[in-house]
Design goal:
The protein is mainly alpha-helical and 1113 residues long. Helices cover 55% and strands 4% of the residues. Helix 31 packs parallel to helix 33 and helix 32 packs parallel to helix 35. Keywords: Metal-binding, Zinc, Zinc-finger.
């Protein structure tokens, strides 16, 4: 065997033909037979002899000892022994090959594109050939079959291994990835599945030792001849150095042998391409959580956990590489400079990173020097300015991991806590405690019966062990045990923690019973829980739940075949060592989840911490919903629900809670749905108590509590801001909706739920949503409506109307229309009620234009199938409403009131008189013109004239407002007056002259009045002369004078600031003015004089005056 060891690259294998591979399962136990070589064995037989003592010893040595140590220990190692050690040194577990060739842990049912799956396919299709094992070096060729776009390619593969770990790989495909390529997988699995078909040779140095000089020379010359283009320069260089007596190569005893295995000083770990780990993490981080990069990084974290579970030292090594790249992320400094928080996806990745480091340093079997190295590195990262803080860049009082104590000091004096702080604190924890050692080492560790009297810190009254520790820290120990491949020990400690929580819960209940009267009188409490377990950075409840349910999970073979994700299936597994045998790990998992979710805890500070509480709560509820409840689980559920209701200040569902306590709505919704089929009274009691949201109680105004602020809390500044308030209120609404749906048809329960909604929900938008939900459930398409639930929907709708009456809400019109629809479904009495009490529900405009109009529509009458008395009752209420609204807001309601009162003469006259009374004070000309046109349309021209006259008194039309929107109304009013007769025209013209100063509008009115005779409307009792009116006589004379005066004034106004580009337009204006002047008897003289005056006054505008002379002389 070679005495020195160097590092030479593996040489390409020789091409040998092998028999085609036979098909095998994807995973199978490592070969237990002795394999090739000396010794008995029947590898192809169903029955095998026990392994020989040589094989047993060789397996142990091959896994634990470097081969150099074997050589040093024994002066001469027989060749059969060497062969067995070399044989057993190759990895024996396919799961390890899978771990290093794909992100996913499962090896069956995965996508075909994964290297492991592709490697299996290459192996099973006979693509692996020329397999040769020389010492600790395996080589072979793997042929990639031809595809539509690629020809067939053969790759040379070389693998070095030591102590059942692959230490280096080389493949001709040039794969650059974290994981092994499919060709390395295929060759590795060939060696594991078909060891008897692999030619095995001792390390090449042993073979060379057996040759004489001539054989060695022949070997070298044949090797150079076969590969002269590649090795000739190297061979000559080595020959020159060997022939030189002073060369470095002659100073070393022996020669390197790449097939002789590792030296004693070499690290015994699997091959991991560190550069590729760095590159891929850097690439994923640069994508900012998009394009699936967040999923890929989470897969890398899962790979670290998988390595830890296999007790692979590369787990910590890989996490270190990942952390280095996370700390090198350029966005960290950018976020710090800008003072902005990192994205939510990125924040979750940092949380997982910190939790993994806690897991790493809590390895129960790590060496002290390893832990010291990790602590040094963690401190280095934590001291960097850019290191993210644990609470998401918001300062808060977070307990120390080792004792859960909070220092109530000023925020400036608080220590800076980074995402690595908990891991650094965990470095102070150890596993040497004798009580802890006994808990995790035995299922039957109990106190003696004679020691169970009185209280004990180590055992409960039943003698079962307790573990009194800060709960998140204790759960971190459980996670560490589970993650490092000690599931049984993790279960034992988890059960001890749950027994401790149970004992604490009962003791807290006893304390509360003595203080209950005092607390109920005060009406509130201060929470004693220093930090919440739900939303905690270490996720203690999720950790315990996962540990306990993992052992109860039933593996579904169909999922392995199809690859489709299915919800987990659980079965009860008795707790090992339980004295009465009645405990189940599944029931314990449910119990601890309920304990954690029901813990009363103060809402943490900061957006991220609050969001994390909500997200973690929903994750736990999702897991709980996957559990199919049987009698034992329902019994556990009922027991814990009762304890939570009676739990006082330690329970979020207790009778009194802190004002800043995290609401229980999401949790209560799960409990309600789960308990309802088994204990409806308990389900309703629990859900109704959970409806409260005390943070809003003392500050909620009587008006709307809708959310234009999008979830920013309205609590006073002395309390932390509730950034997730909008989400919490929506969860409160979901709980209420669930109860309403379940209570359908039960009047008493519906009334109780309705009272809780009206008392506890302060957002009009959410109450409106509940009303809509109740309406939808109460009116199924194929069945008659549920009148009790309809009434609930109506009451909720009425509350929404009252809440939003005096505040702005962009959905107000929708809400009003919906309420009328709901009242219509309820019936006539509901409609009459909202019409009679409109002033508490609607604005006058809404009451007339939406409510009364809809109620009086033909569709509503048909929908209710009303008889004549009922229609009259409804119409009378609508008319009364219309008159009341017109009195209160005539500007906006008068027209609607007139429309609604059309069929009742007295009501119509009353509405008209309201309009007349309001015309002189509050109504605008546009409103009056609109009502006047309505009156003309309804056949009341004289009333229309009166209203139009009143409108004219409010109007003022300047000389330059020739596009004013009221011009059409003025023309209509004058046309109406003209059609009524000379008297009406004479009455309207003075108003027009006073209000209208625009020359073109006045001339248009004048022209229209001279075209036809007045009085064509044919008012009964009046005689129409049929003669055209003269402009020289009243009333048109006054209008003509006003028009001429307006033209003169407008001309002077326009000439003051006229520009040359408007000269042509001005000449046309004068032409229209001349037409008006000529309507007077001496109009041509007046116009000529007017032109002369212009020439004198504006003689400086020579070009313009020249144009005036050309046109008008």
């Amino acid at each position: 065997m070679a005495e020195g060891r160097g590092e030479l690259p593996p040489q390409p294998p020789l091409h040998l033909s092998l028999p085609p591979a036979s098909k095998r399962p994807c995973l199978r136990p490592a070969p237990r037979g002795p394999g090739p070589g000396p010794g008995p064995g029947f590898p192809n037989s169903r029955f095998r002899c026990p392994e020989s003592l040589l094989d047993c010893a060789a397996k142990a040595v091959a896994e634990k000892w470097a081969f150099e140590r074997v050589e040093e220990r024994f002066e001469r190692i027989p060749e059969p022994v060497q062969r067995r050690i070399v044989y057993w040194s190759f990895p024996r577990n396919e799961r390890e090959i899978c771990m290093y060739s794909s992100f996913q842990c499962r090896v069956a049912g995965e996508e075909d594109g994964l290297p492991f799956r592709r490697g299996i396919r290459l192996l099973e299709t006979g693509c692996v050939e020329n397999v040769l094992q020389v010492g600790f070096h395996l080589s072979g060729t793997v042929t990639e079959p031809a595809s539509q776009s690629e020809p067939e390619v053969t790759h040379k593969v070389a693998i070095s291994f030591d102590r059942c770990k692959i230490t280096s790989v080389t493949c001709g495909c040039g794969n650059r990835d974290i994981f092994y390529c499919a060709h390395v997988v295929a060759l590795s699995l060939y060696r594991i599945r078909k060891p008897e078909q692999v030619k095995l040779r001792l390390p090449i140095s042993e073979t060379l030792f057996q040759m004489n000089r001539d054989q060695l020379q022949k070997l070298v010359q044949y090797l150079i001849t076969a590969h002269h283009t590649e090795v000739l320069p190297t061979a000559q260089k080595l020959a020159d150095e060997i022939l030189s007596s002073n060369s470095e190569i002659n100073q070393v005893h022996g020669a390197p042998d790449p097939t002789a295995g590792a030296s004693i000083d070499d690290d015994n770990c699997w091959h991991l391409d560190e550069e590729q780990v760095r590159e891929q993490v850097k690439q994923f981080l640069s994508q900012g959580g998009y394009y699936g990069s967040g999923k890929q990084l989470n897969s890398m974290f899962a790979k670290v956990r998988e390595m830890l579970r296999m007790r692979d030292s590369n787990g910590a090594r890989m996490l270190t590489l990942i952390t280095e790249q996370f700390m090198a992320d350029p966005r960290l400094s950018l976020w710090r400079q800008q003072g902005t928080g990192m994205t939510d996806k990125c924040r979750q990745l940092w949380d997982e990173l910190g939790a993994l480091w806690v897991c790493i340093v809590l390895n129960p079997h790590c060496k002290s020097e390893e832990k010291s190295g990790w602590l040094k590195q963690l401190k280095k990262w934590g001291d960097m300015d850019i290191c993210p803080l644990e609470d998401g860049n918001y300062g808060s009082e977070l307990p120390n991991i080792t004792n859960g104590w909070v220092s109530r000091t000023d925020s400036l004096a608080r220590p800076r806590r980074t995402v690595f702080t908990r891991a650094m604190e965990a470095c102070d924890l150890h596993w040497q405690d004798s009580h802890l050692q006994r808990i995790i080492s035995s299922d039957y560790y109990m106190s003696p019966a004679y020691q169970r009297e009185g209280e004990s810190l180590l055992f409960n009254p039943q003698g079962l062990p307790l573990w009194l520790d800060h709960v998140p820290t204790a759960c971190a120990r459980v996670d560490a045990l589970r993650s490092h491949g000690y599931p049984r020990e993790a279960l034992r400690l988890g059960v001890a923690i749950i027994n401790t929580l149970r004992l604490q819960q009962h003791r807290q209940l006893d304390i509360y019973k003595h203080q209950k009267k005092e607390l109920l009188q005060r009406g509130m409490t201060s929470t004693t829980n220093l930090e919440g377990w739900v939303g905690h950075p270490l996720d203690p409840i999720g950790c315990l739940f996962g540990t306990l349910t993992e052992t109860c999970r039933v593996e579904d073979d169909s999922t392995m075949d199809t690859g489709d994700p299915k919800p987990p299936v659980y079965h009860h597994v008795p707790v090992w060592g339980c004295p009465d045998g009645g405990e189940s790990y599944l029931a314990l998992a449910l119990e601890v989840a309920l304990m954690g979710m029901g813990q009363q805890r103060v809402m943490p500070e900061g957006l991220y911490a609050q969001d994390k509480v909500c997200r973690n709560e929903e994750q736990i509820v999702t897991k709980l919903q996957e559990m199919e409840l049987d009698d034992l689980l329902v019994q556990t559920l009922r027991k814990q629900a009762i304890l939570l209701l009676e739990g006082g200040p330690f329970s979020g569902l207790g009778e009194v809670i802190h004002r800043e306590s995290v609401p229980m709505h999401t949790f209560a919704k799960y409990l309600f749905s789960a308990l309802l089929p088994h204990d409806a009274d308990l389900a309703y009691k629990l859900a109704l108590r959970a409806m409260r949201l005390p943070v809003l109680e003392s500050t909620a105004p009587s008006g709307d509590m809708g959310h234009p602020h999008h979830g920013i809390s309205i609590v006073p500044s002395r309390y932390p801001r509730w950034f997730t308030l909008g989400h919490l209120e929506s969860q409160q609404c979901e709980l209420a909706s669930t109860m309403l749906t379940a209570a359908k048809g039960d009047m008493l329960r519906l009334r109780t739920v309705l009272d809780a909604i009206q008392k506890n929900i302060h957002s009009s938008s959410l109450i409106f949503k509940l009303a809509q939900d109740a309406f939808k459930i109460a009116t199924p398409a194929d069945n008659p409506p549920d009148i009790t639930l309809l009434n609930v929907a109506l009451e909720l709708g009425l509350q929404v109307m009252r809440m939003t009456l005096s505040t702005l809400n962009w959905r107000r019109r929708e809400m009003v229309r919906w309420l009328v629809t709901c009242a219509t479904e309820v019936g006539l009495r509901a409609l009459v009620s909202i019409l009679q009490s409109w002033y508490t529900l609607f604005t006058p405009t809404e009451a007339t234009s939406i409510v009364a109009a809809t109620v009086m529509s033909h569709n509503t009458i048909l929908r209710l199938s009303l008889d004549y008395p009922q229609r009259e009752e409804l119409a009378s209420c609508a008319r009364t409403l219309a008159l009341q609204c017109a009195m209160k807001d005539p500007q906006n309601c008068a027209l609607s009131a007139l429309t609604l009162c059309e069929k009742d003469h007295i009501a119509f006259e009353t509405a008209y008189q309201i309009v007349i009374d309001a015309a002189s004070t509050g109504m605008t000309y546009s409103q009056l013109f609109t009502i006047a046109r309505y009156m003309e349309h309804r056949g009341y021209p004289l009333r229309a004239f009166k209203l139009a006259s009143l409108a004219m008194t409010h109007l003022n039309l300047a000389y330059n407002q020739d596009t004013h929107p009221a011009i059409n109304d003025v023309l209509w009013a004058c046309a109406l007056s003209h059609s009524l007769g000379k008297n009406e025209l004479a009455a309207i013209i003075p108003l027009v002259v006073k209000s209208v100063h625009c020359a073109t509008v006045l001339s248009d009115i004048l022209r229209r009045c001279t075209m036809t005779a007045p009085g064509l409307a044919g008012i009964p009792g009046r005689r129409n002369s049929g003669k055209l009116m003269s402009t020289d006589k009243a009333p048109l004379r006054q209008l003509l004078d006003a028009t001429i005066s307006a033209y003169i004034n407008t001309t002077h106004s326009r000439l003051t600031h006229i520009s040359p580009r408007h000269y042509g337009e001005f000449i046309e204006f004068l032409s229209k003015a001349r037409e008006t002047f000529l309507l007077a008897q001496d109009g041509h003289i007046q116009f000529a004089q007017f032109i002369e005056n212009l020439k004198q006054i504006y003689k400086g505008k020579k070009k313009l005056m020249m144009l005036v002379r050309e046109r008008f002389g």
